[in-house]
Design brief:
The protein has 420 residues and is of the alpha/beta class. The protein has 2 domains: 91 residues, Sandwich (Immunoglobulin-like), CATH 2.60.40; 323 residues, TIM Barrel. It is globular, with a radius of gyration of 23 Å. About 3% of the residues have low confidence. The strands form 4 sheets. An 8-stranded parallel sheet has the order 15-14-12-10-9-8-17-16. A 4-stranded antiparallel sheet has the order 3-2-5-6, with no helix packed on it. Strands 4-1-7 form a 3-stranded mixed sheet, with no helix packed on it. The chain is 32% helix and 20% strand.
């Protein structure tokens, strides 16, 4: 009887395992056109595969929910039992992100937040990029991360209840992007000098803003930022966007490994790959902000950013295409602030040609702040419209406007807003 019971238990266990690890097959398509979506990520648990050029996938994993995401589309989750026959179509709805940026202080300030929301309403935008770890390393809301507490990243809690705030923003049908500044982290470098970038003479390196950086080779730094990313994914953000995911732009820094071009590129790409893998169970999109010149340069721009490896590591690439940032211009357009359309369009075109990926994989940062390099004046409604047109003519999956003061025009600048 004991043997019979043991055999029965083994049989039940085998059947449970076999059911839990059933292979799921299907085809991911654009719900509007019916065309296949290549490179969509399909996951179950921590297992994931990408669709082929015909939109087909086969996934073996344990779990009950099949999760799907692709740049330029709304994410979707379905029960594995609802998939139907092998090869069945799963449609994803096209989605274009049109957003504004708020700093840690901007999201906490009722005045700045409400003004941004008014601009969003007037222009029929649909997204907010919110700092969850800003340029100085502060995290403006309570998180359960021991290192954040130890280094004082939680000393200034500006948002008392981030969950409730996100809920209120979701009620406005907003797509929420969590911006995490990665390797520029004054708070972590100050509290943990063993993780800090140093000068050749052994001191702590500081940049032009007198802020410290942490070593991009450090796995402890990687884990800390990935922990923050997991926290905000659990809170309900739709996307995690990594900024300052690079080495400081200095030739005088000292790191835990030789900062050769190959080593720099491997560190930055490796971090993004590790973060993307860790976030698979949350089904959030993962994005990386990169310098505008990265799409033009064949080297790593001396900061570890190369367009092709980065395009293979994340879902969305967000080049910072601010005309004011192109101090040398681009071929044929040496005064970028007089040619904002060409700067945005030609840079995106260059990025797509070099990577060979879909234009939907790109969502640029655009300029909504006063020119500081060419005495070119403000970038308000007219120049904002020009930049939007360039991104949309290219076929990007959206765009985001940057203003470090969180001050945006009250008037209409988007075509959708003008049509209403």
């Amino acid at each position: 009887m004991k043997n019979q019971g043991r055999c029965l238990a083994l049989l039940i266990g085998f059947l449970f395992w076999a059911t839990a690890t059933l292979a799921h097959e299907g085809r991911v398509t654009d719900a509007a056109t019916g065309l296949p979506i290549e490179a969509a990520l399909v996951s179950m648990g921590d297992q994931a595969v990408r669709t082929d050029k015909d939109g087909m996938f086969r996934l073996e994993g344990s779990g009950e929910t099949l999760k799907l995401k692709a740049a330029g589309y709304a994410r979707r989750e379905i029960a594995g039992t609802e998939l139907g026959s092998p090869g069945a179509d799963i449609g994803l709805t096209p989605f274009t992100v049109k957003g504004l940026y708020l700093t840690v202080y901007g999201i906490a300030s009722t005045k700045l937040r409400e003004a941004a929301l008014k601009t969003i309403e007037t222009n029929h935008l649909n997204a907010l990029v919110i700092d969850v770890k800003g340029d100085r390393g502060f995290i403006p809301f309570q998180v359960d991360l021991p290192l954040a507490e130890q280094i004082g990243a939680q000393d200034t809690i500006l948002v008392k209840d981030m969950k409730s705030l996100l809920t209120s923003l979701k009620e406005k049908k907003l797509y929420l992007i969590a911006r995490i500044v990665v390797f520029k982290d004054d708070r972590l470098a100050k509290a943990r000098p063993d993780l800090a970038v140093r000068t050749k003479s052994g001191g702590i390196y500081t940049d032009r803003e007198h802020l410290r950086w942490v070593d991009p080779f450090s796995r402890e730094v990687w884990d800390y930022n990935i922990g923050i990313a997991k926290t905000v994914a659990e809170l309900g953000f739709d996307e995690v966007q990594f900024d300052y995911v690079r080495f400081p732009d200095t030739r005088g820094g000292a790191f835990s490994k030789p900062a050769t071009e190959d080593n720099r590129t491997e560190a930055i790409t490796g971090f993004l790959q590790a973060a993307h893998q860790a976030l698979i169970p949350y089904n959030v999109l993962v994005a990386a902000d990169i310098f505008g010149y990265v799409v033009w340069n064949s080297n790593d721009t001396d900061i570890g950013q190369k367009i092709v490896p980065i395009s293979q590591a994340v879902d969305v690439i967000s080049p910072m295409l601010y005309p004011s940032g192109y101090h040398l211009g681009i071929p044929k357009y040496r005064n970028p602030v007089k040619n904002p359309y060409q700067i945005v369009y030609q840079s995106l075109k260059q990025a797509q040609e070099r990577t060979g990926v879909s234009p939907l994989r790109f969502r640029p940062w655009l300029q909504a702040f006063r020119d500081y390099a060419f005495r070119g004046g403000d970038f308000k409604e007219e120049r904002m419209r020009i930049q939007i047109k360039a991104a949309e003519d290219f076929g990007a999956s959206g765009w985001m406007f940057w203003n470090p003061r969180n001050v945006y025009p009250e008037a209409v600048f988007s075509d959708i807003g003008r049509e209403q």
